[in-house]
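Predict structure. Chain length: 209.
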Amino acid sequence: MKVAVLDNKGKDTGRKVELSDEVFAIEPNEHAIYLDVKQYLAHQRQGTHKAKERAEIAGSTRKLKKQKGTGTARAGSIKSPVFRGGGRIFGPRPRNYAQKLNKGVKRLARRSALSLKTKENALFIVEDFQMEAPKTKDYVSFLTSLGIQDKKSLVVLSGENKNLYLSSRNLKGTEVVTASELNTYKILNAKNVVLLEGSLEGIQENLGK
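Prediction complete.
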């Protein structure tokens, strides 16, 4: 599959690049996408949540009142969960939310996500370019030239491009990542994906069968 290469002004360079069909034109596997996104979101959770249970509450263990004859329910401790300030019943405890997913499934999910973007005509290939200085205005002009300034976008670089990254950092709705940081969630979370030409080789090499 051949796709036109644009310059950073959004104009056709007259060149076309060959995209691998096994990465950008497969039948998307929705279950693989689901599993990969689920794992990514689970890994964002710190798992440091904690509530004190009755054994951890500071307070007296003296029996509050006599067992019988008060006309109310028996009560043994002020730390009981039924009292205000008492422990919490089955409260959250620190835990690890990490999930295991085979590498083959992860690669399939990413190929599926990229294929979806290709089908939706939401994938742009732009020739590599550098910014002389970090300027948000220049980065906005770049997105405007592609017609995606008002949509969520993901720009994928082949490697470190400090000025381009810094120019995008204080804008909402756009993210700049390197090819090695690309994942299924980021691809699907963006309305449009912009691949700099230099990133294609690494993406196709990593995700190819």
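Summary: The chain has seven helices and six strands.
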